[in-house]
Amino acid sequence: MSPAGLRHATERMRRAGLPDLAVEVFAGYYAQLEEGRTGLIPEDTIDPVLDVTDIAEVEVSPAQQREALARTVMIKLNGGLGTSMGMDRAKSLLPVRDGLSFLDIIAGQIRHARVASGADLPLLLMDSFRTREDTLAALAAHPDLACPGLPADFVQHREPKLLVDSLEPVDWPADPSLEWCPPGHGDIYVALLTTGLLDTLIERGYRYANTSNADNLGAAPDGRLAGWFAASGAPYAPEVCRRTPADRKGGHLGRRRADGRMILRDTAQTPAADMAWFTDETRHPYFHTNNLWFDLVALRDALAARGGVPGLPLIRNRKHVDPTDPSSPEVFQIECALGAVVELFDDPAPVLVERARFLPVKTTDDLLLLRSDAYELDDDVRLRLAADRACLVQLDPRHYRQIADFDAHFPAGPPSLRGAERLTVDGDWTFGAGVVVTGDVQLPDPGTPCLVPDGTDLTRHDTSPAAASAPDGERRADR
User: Fold this and answer.
1) Domain 5-357: which topology?
2) What is the pLDDT confidence band of residue 65, given thresholds at 50, 70 and 90?
3) How far apart are CA 373 and CA 414, in angstroms?
C-alpha cells in the first residue's frame, strides 16, 4: 500500500472543491480500508428484527394525514446512471409508461398529493455530479413543482476511486470523470449538512422527510404513513416488506448482539459463508425497501453529537474504473448505505408496508414488467398491480440487458403479462405486437435470432419455438 495514498486522494478532493466535512468522512473510511476492514457483518453477530408496526393495522384520521404531509418533504435519490442497463444519463429519465419517465410520474404523484392534501409537499432530488445537468433540463418541463425558497435539487459529494493494489487514487486520462464516484446514498446526511439544506428545511417549518430511490415508483407520497410517523414520535422509520423467495438478496435489519443497536445489512456486507442465512426468508422475514422516514430535528441533533460525521458502516465495492471495460484496472469504491443511519438512533421504528410501495427497476426484467399490462397507472399516478400476482421475468442478459437491445427486441411494446406467472427467455427472441403470455412460459435458446409473431399466444409450459401459437392457429415461432 502507498503511505501517500490518502494524502493524494484528499488533495484531489480539495482541488475539486469538496467541503472539509466530506473530505473528513472519506478519510475515515480510507483508514478503515487501509486497516483491511471489509465492512462484513457475520450472522453470529446479529439477531433478526421481528418487531415491526404493520401500517395496515394503524388508523390515521384525514386531519392527521394532512397535518403531517404539510410538514413533510419528499427526497428522491437520483444519483444513478443506470450503467448496468447501458445508460449514460440519469435512470430517472428512462420512459416507463406511455412515454412518461420515472421523473414525469414522480412529478404527477407530487401534484396529486398536493391537491388531495393541500400541502406544499416539496420535492427535492439528490443528484450526483453525473446526473444533475440532464435531470435539471428535464425538470424544466415541470415548473409548477418548484417551492419558493427551496432548491430543486442538491448534489451528493464525490470521491476518488482507489486502485485495489495500492489504494492510490486512479488516473484514467481516457475519461477523467471515471476517476470519481459518488460515496453511496448514505452521503445524503453529509450533503444535507454541507449544503445548509437541513437547517433551511427546519427553519421553514418542515419536520419530516420521506426518502426513496427515484427508480421506485411505489414510494409515492402517503398521508397514512406520514401521519403514523408524526404521531409515533420516532426519530427514524425504515419501511420493510415481507420477504419471499424472490427477495432473498434484499438487505435486511438486524440487531447487533454487542450493543443491542439496530443495523442494516446488505449483500455486500455479508460473508460468503453466511449467505444461506442472509437469503433465508424464514430467519429474516422482512427486507429493507430503502424507503425511509426521519425526523429532521432528530437527524440534525444526532449528526451534531458526532461532529457532523455519521460514522455509518463501510461498504467496500470492488469494480473496474471503467464499468464497461472489464480489462480496466480494478478499483475500490468506498460507500455507505442510506438505511445504515438506523444505528444513530435509540428508538427506530420499522414499519411494515404493502408490497406496492416497492417497485424498483434495477434491470430490464423489472422494466418489462412495469411497462406491461400487469400494472396500471391509476388516476392518482400510482402504479398498481392489475394481475393476481406479479409475473417473474427473466430475460437472457446477452440480448436484453442493455436498454438499446431491450427496446429493439420489443419494437411494438411489451407482451401482455397480466395472466403470466413466469416468463423466461433464453436466446435472441424479438416479440411482435399483441403477444400474450399466460402461465409459466419458457422460450429456449434457438441458436439464431427468432421472432415471436404478432398476436402469438404463449401458454403455460411452452418450452420450444414450435409451441408458439400464431394468429392463424399454427403453433409456431418464425425464424
Assistant:
1) Spore Coat Polysaccharide Biosynthesis Protein SpsA; Chain A (3.90.550)
2) very high
3) 8
